[in-house]
Every structure is written in structure tokens, then in C-alpha cells.
Design a protein that fits this description.
Number of helices: 5
Largest sheet: 3 strands, antiparallel
Radius of gyration: 15 Å
Strand order of the largest sheet: 1-5-4
Strand content: 15-25%
Number of strands: 5
Order of helices and strands: HEHEEHEEHH
Helix content: 40-55%
């Protein structure tokens, strides 16, 4: 049976598409934080997150499962990369696929949610531009 992405999936794909416009792929832990932040800013995505009080990390089991399904269905690309430390031997990095980009162009995302996603991605883009432009110090 073919997996048909719903509005939650389209919002995640849209986020990945906007990040791809900046030339960015995103690690799974960072993607969870971004979706969490976007929801806190008012986007109606609907994932439930567990927040670890010890280090402030956030995780959604549903988001992780959906990312896996979207990857298997070809809407996003998932790559395994080596981790930054011994405790984290590997992690996943996500990128929108052409199939995923075509889906969000065709089906779209609710305007309010699109605005919040674009606002967050714009801030990321501004920071990336400063870093790439040598404005870091």
C-alpha cells in the first residue's frame, strides 16, 4: 500500500524544502528541535514532544516514525552520518527529495503554518549568511 502524506507530513516536508533552499540538510535531533520550536511559535502541526529536563533536548516518537515512512516512500532522503562524539556513533540527516518538493508545491501547506515555518527558516538563513560571510568574529 502506498503511503499518502497528510498535512503533518507536508509541513515537515515544507520545512525541509525551505532549509534545502539555504543549502542545508538537517540532523534528526535538530529537526525535532525545529519542529518543536515552530509549534511553540503557533504552527498547528500537532506532534507531542518529550522534553528532557537534564539537557533540554526534545523528541517526538510520532515525528521519528513519520520521517522513516516519508523516507521509505521517497518524499525525503535520509542519510546516516558519523556522530560528533563517542556517545553518538551515528545519526540521521534529512533532505527533501524532488518527490517531496513536488508534493508541497502541488498540495501546499496552510498559510499560517507556512508563515511560521518561513519566519523560523529566515532566522536560520540570516545566521548562516553571517557565518558564511565571515561575520562571526
Amino acid at each position: 500500500m502506498t503511503y499518502r502524506p497528510d498535512s503533518k507530513d507536508r509541513k515537515v516536508i515544507y520545512l525541509l524544502a525551505k532549509l534545502a533552499e539555504l543549502g542545508l540538510d538537517v540532523r534528526e535531533d535538530a529537526l525535532h528541535r525545529l519542529v518543536y520550536r515552530i509549534q511553540r511559535k503557533g504552527a498547528k502541526i500537532g506532534f507531542e514532544f518529550e522534553v528532557a529536563s537534564s539537557n533540554g533536548s526534545v523528541f517526538s516518537h510520532e515525528l521519528a516514525e513519520r520521517l522513516e515512512r516519508l523516507s521509505e516512500a521517497g518524499y525525503v532522503k535520509r542519510f546516516m552520518v558519523t556522530g560528533r562524539s563517542y556517545e553518538e556513533l551515528y545519526s540521521y540527516v534529512y533532505r527533501v527529495s524532488e518527490k517531496g518538493a513536488a508534493l508541497v508545491r502541488k498540495a501546499g501547506v496552510a498559510q499560517r503554518d507556512r508563515r511560521v515555518i518561513e519566519e523560523v527558516v529566515k532566522r536560520i538563513g540570516d545566521r548562516v549568511s553571517k557565518l558564511r560571510g565571515g561575520g562571526g568574529g
